[in-house]
Amino acid sequence: MLQQTGIKRNLTSFILLVLTNLFVGSMVGLERTVLPIIGEDEFGLTSTSATLSFIITFGFSKALMNFFAGSLADRFGRKNVLIAGWIVGAFVPLLIITAPAWWVIIFSNVLLGINQGLTWSMTVNMKIDLSSSHQRGLAVGLNEFAGYIGVALFAFITGYLASMYSPRPEPFLIGFGIVLVGLILSFMVPDTSSLVSKNTSNDKQETEPFKKVFLKTSFKNRHLSSVSFAGLTTNLKDGMAWGLFPLFFINTGLSAGQISLIIAIYPATWGIFQLITGPLSDRIGRKILITSGMFIQAIALIGITFGSGFGFWLIASIILGLGTAMVYPTLIASISDVAPTKTRATSLGIYRFWRDSGYAIGALLAGSIADLLSVQWSIGITALFPLLASIYTLVSLRDEKNKGTIEGER
């Protein structure tokens, strides 16, 4: 049984969780490059909104799972929820490989959303459980680094396999191996629920009802609501990028290898730089990274919209990944800074509900704009949302790093 917090004291468990999240992210990477193309080429989808429907269902199912993951973890234990997420994930590659119709692909992404909501939520919660309060940025940075390296690596691998063989089944056969390794690692890691119980045993603060925590995190507390909005717009942008980047670049005359590299370099940069931005936020504070990171994302999207050429788009994709890396672990750490220990998993689940709703909202909005105007203009208009989030966090976010719960309402 785990006894004390601190990454060094729990290094083996922490490393196991980092490796586990590498494979969690790999499940998303499986379809990052290939699935939008399958929708058009194999199922004859002519509407961009219809093509992006798999991201909409993924986003909403993941968001709902995030919403309930905290309470499930409190009731059944973090490790059990993590294992359950992998069992659900095993059906995803099977359904994609055998799908006779597009609705089966959509259903597979409902399962992928459940898989991600359970597994990714638990890996980040368990790392925060293991870490001391001054290590949260580092812990989240390492978690998100591993996850998005998995996304990038398998986005590139599946894109390459699709160009060498076919979009199905070769790229998705790897998914069975990913699930198997993820399950083995999850069985090896100890549950961190005992640490949470120990840390809250002397906590005099009463546990707040769920409704109160939801309203505070979502609307009433300026700090928490600005973090939630920034998370939503970050994944709104990513939902657009997931669905539209393959469709945008495939019509630019670039080779399959160049397209795969541009698409993969964005989450790769996102993943790698979180190794720096997560711990950096522990030192310099959260606000400066969040506000500037949202602004950089907006600039990168404008560059992709109006730029041209492989080299330019590659650099813009790297900048987009850098801006995302500045905010992604920092937003989670900011929630963890201010949420009481007893309701931290619930607050994180509510934040992740709003954040991952952005996938669905982004795909729905981007698809509608692309059908009305064009894919290019859809990417450009999406840039307005991280720009608005940058302004909102600038005026609303209080940098209360590691200083306990922020009370007060609007």
Automatic annotation (TrEMBL):
InterPro entries of this UniProt entry? MFS, MFS_dom, MFS_trans_sf, MFS_Transporters, Sugar_transporter_CS
Named from the GO MF annotations, one term is: transmembrane transporter activity
User: Where the protein is mainly located, per its record?
Assistant: membrane
Keywords from the UniProt entry? Cell membrane, Membrane, Transmembrane, Transmembrane helix, Transport
Q: How does it sit in the membrane?
A: Multi-pass membrane protein
Bilayer-crossing regions? 12-30, 50-69, 81-105, 145-165, 172-189, 244-267, 288-306, 312-332, 353-370, 376-395
Q: Name one GO cellular component term.
A: plasma membrane
Residue ranges constituting the Major facilitator superfamily (MFS) profile domain according to the UniProt record: 13-401
Where would you find this protein in the cell?
A: Cell membrane
Return any one Pfam family short name.
MFS_1
From what superkingdom does this record's organism come?
Bacteria
Name of the featured protein? MFS transporter
Species: Pontibacillus marinus BH030004 = DSM 16465
